[in-house]
Amino acid sequence: MKLFIYDHCPFCVKARMIFGLKDLPVRLVTLLSDDEITPISMIGKKMAPILQKDDGSYLPESMDIVHYVDNLDGKPLLTGKTNPAIATWLQHTATYVNKLLLPRFANADFEEFATDNARRYFSDKKQAASGDFAVLLADSADLIAQLEEDLATLSPLIQSSEAVNGTLSEDDIHLFPLLRSLSIVAGVALPDNVEAYRNRMAQRVDIPLLFDMEQ
User: Whole-structure pTM over 0.70, yes or no?
Assistant: First the structure.
């Protein structure tokens, strides 16, 4: 199978995770950020991730891909119960975390920004929605302080470095991509168990963290 992705994209990380957890081969294809033709030709709109199945058909939407791949062999891994507190925590941090992430993504050496036009396409669209990147970067210290307070509240929710609730669940699929994204932000101190969880999950799903792009 092929999985069409952007490397920075948390939704793409969700789809990538299930292949790593199940030790299934997949060919990753990174789309250029400004490539509208390829995804539209596959599913009628510009988005990622998109899975090309073995039969050649296409499946978009990250969680649809996760559920499809997890159940291919009839032995799903994501069997654990979810914790509503994890969803609440993610909803809360989503109100501000992109102000930290988007300016740094735009400056980083991701394959989807391999051309100047692709990088400009991303930057222009995201700044129109989120604000001037230079201003957001200037406000980083306050946002990092807020994030560290919120990471402290996440810490007691993590039951194991192997799975946030002790058994793999959809909560892991939603939580790890954000924690991975945060590894691009220099100066963020994670509680020890949150860092242990992030490191172990990165290993389990075979998706590298972003410390080499840290800003």
Answer: yes
